[in-house]
Specification:
Distance between the termini: 22 Å
Number of domains: 1
Number of strands: 0
Strand content: under 5%
Number of helices: 12
Structural class: mainly alpha
Shape: elongated
Length: 351
Amino acid sequence: MSNITERAVAAIGRDGQDADWQLRPNEHAEGLPPDARALKRVLESEELKRLIAQFREADAAAIKAQTNYKKIGSWGLWAATIATIVGAFFLLPAEPWLNDLTRTVFSVVQLCLLGIAFGMARWLAMKKPFNTWMQKRAEAELARVELFNQVVRAGEVVQGDDIPLLPLKLEYFRRYQLDVQQRYYQRRGKQHEDRSWRNNRLLTLSSGITILVLVLGMFSALEFLEAWGLISPDWLVPLPEFLRVPQINRIMLAMGVIASAFYGLGISLSLMDLDERNASRYQTTAENLEYLTNTNLAEARKAAAANDSQTVYNFVTKIQALISSEHQEWILLSVRERALDPDKLRHVKGL
C-alpha cells in the first residue's frame, strides 16, 4: 500500500463502526485531520445536506409503512388461524362439555376473529403499506447512493502537502458505503435465515399434528378391517369409546383442520416477511461485495494514488450498481437514472 493510500486510510479510519451506516458527513468532516481539508469541504456541501434530508424523510416513511404492514398483516393472519382452530373445536366429540352458552360464546369469538382478519386484509388492500414500504425504502437507499456519488464526483483544490482528494474520496466511500453495506447484507441475510427457521417451527407443529392424525387413523382402519371380516376381533386390543368410529373420525377431522391452519400461518408469515427470498438475496449480495472488495479494491487504491480517476470510478460504479439493484424495480425510471447514471462518474474531470 502506497504512502498516499496509508495517509488516506489513516485520515478516514481503517475499520468501520456500528454507527457508520448513519449519514453524518458533517460529523465525519469535523473528525478529519488538517491534511484532509479538501474532503472536509466536500462533506460540508449544501448538496449533501439536501440528500441527507431526502434520505431521512424517505427512511422514516419506509420504517412506518413496514411496521404497519407487518403488524396489521400478523394480526390478520393470527386472527384467521385462531378462528379456524375455534371452529375445529366444534368438530370434536365434546358434547358433554358444551352447552348453549358455551356454543354462543365460541361462536361470537370466532365471528369477532373473522371480522378482525377481514378488516386487516381490507386495510392492507386499501392502504397498500407494502408498496409504500418498498417505494420509500428504494427512495431512501437511492438517496444514499446519490450522496456517495456526489462525494466521488466532487472536485476541490488540494493545497501544499495535503492528502490528494481522490484517495480520500475512495477511502470515504470504502468505509461509509462499501463496508457498511457488506456488513448490512451479511447481518440481515443471517437474520432472515433465522426467521425462516422460526416460521418453519409452525410447519413442524403442523407436521407433528398430521403424524398424530395418521396414527389415530390406524385405529379407525383396524375397526373397518374388523367390520369387513379381514381380521379377527381377537387380534384387537379393546379400544376406548373415543377411539372408535365415528368419534375417531371427528377427532381426525378437527386435528386435520388445525394442522392445515398452522401450516397456512407458517407459509403466510414467511411470505409476508420475505424471509427465504431475502436470506438468499442478501447473502448472495454480501458475497458479491466481498468478491469485488477482494479483487478490485487494491487496484482502485493504486489507481487513486496515481490519480487515475477512471479506474476508481469504474470500481465505485460496480459497487453502487450492485447495492442499488434490489431497489430499482420499486422506483420511477426518471429518479433511478438521476441517481445511477454512470456517465456522471466517467466524465468527471479537473480533480
